[in-house]
Amino acid sequence: MCFPNCKHKWFRKCLSARNSLTWIRNMATSEMMLSLGLIERDVNADTLWVWCYPSISADLREVLLRKSCLPLNSQVLHTFVFGQYCRTWYYITTVEVQEPTALKKVTHFSIVITAKDFNPEKYAAFSRVLCRTYVKHGSPVKMMECYIAVLTKGDCQSDENGSFLIKDYDVRKAYLAGSLKDVVSQFGMETIILYTALMLKKRVVVYHPRIEALLEFTRALPGLVWHRKDWSILHPFVHLDNDELENLKLCTGYVAGFVDPEVRDRSDLFDVYVNLPDSEITVSQNAKEAMAMGKLHKEIGNFIVQAAEDMERTDAQVIKDISVKTKEILRNLMSLADEAENSKLTLETLKQRHYPPATENFLFHLAAAEQLLKI
User: Fold this and answer.
1) Can you name the residues that pair with 254 across neighbouring β-strands?
2) Rounded Cα–Cα distance for residues 296 and 90 (Å)
3) Which PANTHER family does UniProt cross-reference here (predicted)?
């Protein structure tokens, strides 16, 4: 069911209740959580998985242990990180144990939640309740009770450790939590490179040595292509380990975040490389043709900058403005497709319109990305 090194006696009781809990999970059809786990570092600086329900694969355990800052024995504590691996979202909250506490031999611990959905604020809030519960009781039993309560009822009420209600965390709020205005403020007209890359479903790699800055920046980028509402392209915290890179390479297009500066030498991983500390964006040699800029790009870029610089407009309004502009481009593209055979565009159809070369090139690759191109 889980790990042979599990050290809590109560876990055997959970094993005997496995069938009941499985039935409960099946009844909670609307719930997105997949598992709840605990990693601890003890007074001897040993870090290990303590338990997890339900069990997860050894590969996923290894990745999640890597994402937790506990094995590093570093003075820097990343209180909350999130990311995606093999289509599973993970949310890790790490706490330093302060005396006095029921946890006698534990110096730090990480609460690990895996889920189907992207919603950092939701799982950060739930993790805070779980952390307070674990510190108070020193046993995962109460945490398991909270987990089951949320799994079955959608809420966890506690006067001592705080309350959590799933209905307070709409996915739309999670999508809008990133700030496109900050992205445009940093990169100005070069934001059009990011917009173009995402529209064409290219591979965007972002580097920053600080994970918090990386998470904040990368989560905002899918908002540039709001018409897709697809945050599955987001891989905000990737290590240069083979298992993670092989998983990343299975994706057609993505936004991937790295804290390792050596990623700049891995041109096989990106079409566009963003050096966040230096505010530099580089287009790889292989992507230069598809990413060629022209009059249309300048027009869109100016539109994005003007919308973002309007102090009276919120991030949500800026996203909507960009989305309206994008849908206008897509409508024009689809009207061309409607005129063509089988509602599919060809390069010949575009050439008949006598667009400027850069515009023709962009529309051709956009048609391919939107599956409007005749092959």
Assistant:
1) 203
2) 39
3) DENN DOMAIN-CONTAINING PROTEIN 10-RELATED, PROTEIN FAM45A-RELATED
Question: What span, in angstroms and rounded, lies between the C-alpha atoms of 294 and 302?
Answer: 12
Q: How confident is the model over 60-109, as pLDDT tens digits?
A: 999 999 999 888 766 678 899 999 999 999 999 999 998 777 788 899 99
Q: What is the pLDDT of residues 114-131, one digit of tens each?
A: 999 999 999 999 999 999
288 vs 228: CA distance, rounded Å: 24
pTM: 0.89
Domain that holds residue 126: 10-169
Q: Which residues make beta-bridge pairs with 113?
A: 36, 91
47: β partners: 41
**Position 5 in a domain:** no
CB 194 within 8 A of CB 183: yes
Both 15 and 154 in one domain: the answer is: yes
How many domains are there within the chain? 3
